[in-house]
Structures are given as structure tokens and as C-alpha cells.
Amino acid sequence: MRAEDAQLWEHANQLLERDGELELPWTQQAFDWLLRHLAQPPARMLDVGCGPAVASCLFAQMSPATQVTGVDATPAFLRQGAARVSRLGLSDRVHVLEGDLSEGLDVPAADLVWAARVVHHLSDPVAGLVELGRLTSPGGLLAVIEGGLPIRVLPGGYGVGRPGFMSRLEAVLSDHFIDAYDLPERVTSGTEDWPLLMAEASLEHLASRSFLLDLPAPVEPWVRAYLLDKFAHLWDMVGPKLDPPDAEALARLTDPTDSLGIHQRLDLFVLAAHTVHLATTH
Fold this sequence. Notes:
alpha/beta, 10 helices, disordered N terminus, Rossmann fold
């Protein structure tokens, strides 16, 4: 791995834990919803693609009777996750393990399986859903988090660049992720939705619900700092791929001297939606 690629990857690792912390409000709402669908708190919860274990730790805090296992294929995420588990005093109930969903997971079945933004990375998403179904105990629940609405952090067109700047930025980002992660056409073409893919995997789709992340202006300083780093990371990923006017607009957002940048804007907020698709095994 080139030095600049390694640095970009390390930055992404650090941002992922902060992503999870920013998303704690909607994740807690989703967990409340899932717990209401279960007759009793689950004895075991499995967090597939757990990353730095933010959701794993949150569920353990919300459901003290539950043993939580987080699984991820990336050792760097697992190191972050283990540190977080220890820091929060949850080592007796939360464990993180290395494993790759595409290769099958050697872990016991769980009453609740949570898979957030992991299945769309698989070359065969239906096979991934089949494996997640196998890991779900009879009568248990599988929650697959995919889709929703993209994040917005400033009013209208953000006040920089030409109209449609954010839509064009998101299109370039989409192409970047499809190429970088070789995402399968079945989940990027828009021709098949997740309930249909679940049915193909012999899962019974129960419901889909979107949860709002809504942090109105003015945001707390740590949220502003996070957004600055997030947009700087976007520049590192796709800045050179943007048309010159859009590249200039993105650069302005992270310029501390620009009155329209994230540093100085008092109208900075966070608004996004995340969709949870709930299923059970036949």
C-alpha cells in the first residue's frame, strides 16, 4: 500500500468511530424499535461488520442481559472496537472477533443480528443475506441497515459553487465507491430493493423503517470538528475528480478563512435518514 493510501485509510478508520458516535441518536431509536419486536431481551446479539463496535457497545448498554458479539474483517477496526469496549467497562458482555461474512462466520446463532451497511459490499448480496439468516436463531430478528437519504449539513445549495453542487458531489462519490469497493450492480443499479433481495434469500421481510438523524443548528463544537474532518476526507477521496468549479466549492467549505465555510457558519446542522430492513427466518 502506498504511503498516501495508508494515510487515507487510517483517516477513514478514525472517522468511522466518529461516524458511529454522531449516529448514536438514531441507532438508539432503531434499537428501541427492535426490542419492541422481541418478546424478551435477546440472550445474544450479533453485530456483523461491527467496525469500531460503537453499535455493539450501545446495545450492551441498552440491554444489560444481552451478550454481544461484534464481527469484522478489518483488524484495525477490531483494535478500535476492543479499546472502546474496555474503555466503557463492557468487556464482560461485549466481544469482538475477526471474521468475513462473505466466507461464512463461525459464531453461534443470535436472537438479534444487526448488519449495518455491510451487505452491499458483498459480490453476492443474496448469499450474504442467506448467511445472515443462518446466523439468526429461530424466531429471532435480522436487521439489515441499507439505504436512506444522504446527509445534509447546510441550507439549500450550501452557498458555494453552482446550483446542484451537492448532487454532483454525491454522484462523483457514488462512482468512487463503486469503483474502489467493486460494489455489485444488484445493489447499485436501483432495480431491486432490499425486501426483494431478502425474499430471494428465503427470509421473511417484516418491515422497513427509516430513522432520522436530526441535529439542528447551532451544532456542538465536536460536531463541527467532525464535519470539517469529514469534508476534508471527501476532498482527499474525490477532490481531483471534480470539475474545477465544484472542486473550488468543496475547498471553500473547509477553508477556515472563508465566511461560507464550515468553520464559520452558524447555520450548520446535521440531517440524514437511515433505513432498517427487518426480517426473520421461515
